[in-house]
Amino acid sequence: VRLVESGGGSVQAGGSLTLSCTTSGFPFSSYTMYWYRQPPEKEREYVAEISLGGGVIDYADSVKDRFTISRDNEKNILYLHMNSLKPEDTALYYCHRTPDFWGQGTQVTVSS
């Protein structure tokens, strides 16, 4: 199983970024996929999840209405579209597949 995040960067508050998680080594379309993040000096926290075919989606309250999770089962890629970014969204963002597979993370820094 391989998960590789990309797309992070530094933006000003109110800006947008799209993260990608390129996967390999498993049948991507057979798994619910997740995004988590770890803010500086804090615990890792749940951000969003998307079911196998994309029909069931959920978000943490802190990102609801600003972030959109999506997936491309043909390309085996998971996405996180982030709009109206806030300084408190600053974190290392991880792609996750159960039971315990994680990517290396991609850093998002939002300045005020």
What would you say this structure looks like, in words?
- The protein is mainly β.
- The protein has no helices and 11 strands.
- Strands 2, 4, 5, 6, 9, 10 and 11 form a 7-stranded mixed β-sheet that branches. A 4-stranded antiparallel β-sheet has the order 1-3-8-7, with no helix packed on it.
- A hairpin with a 3-residue loop joins strand 9 and strand 10.
- The radius of gyration is 13 Å and the shape is globular.
- The termini are far apart.
- The model has no long low-confidence stretch (mean pLDDT 97).
What is the helix tally?
A: 0
Order of helices and strands: EEEEEEEEEEE
List the uncertain runs: none
Shape summary: globular
Distance between the termini: 37 Å
What value does the average pLDDT take? 97
Task: Count the E strands.
Answer: 11
Structural class determined from secondary elements: mainly beta
Radius of gyration: 13 Å
- The percent of residues in helical segments reads under 10%
Q: Which sheet architecture does the biggest sheet show?
A: 7 strands, mixed
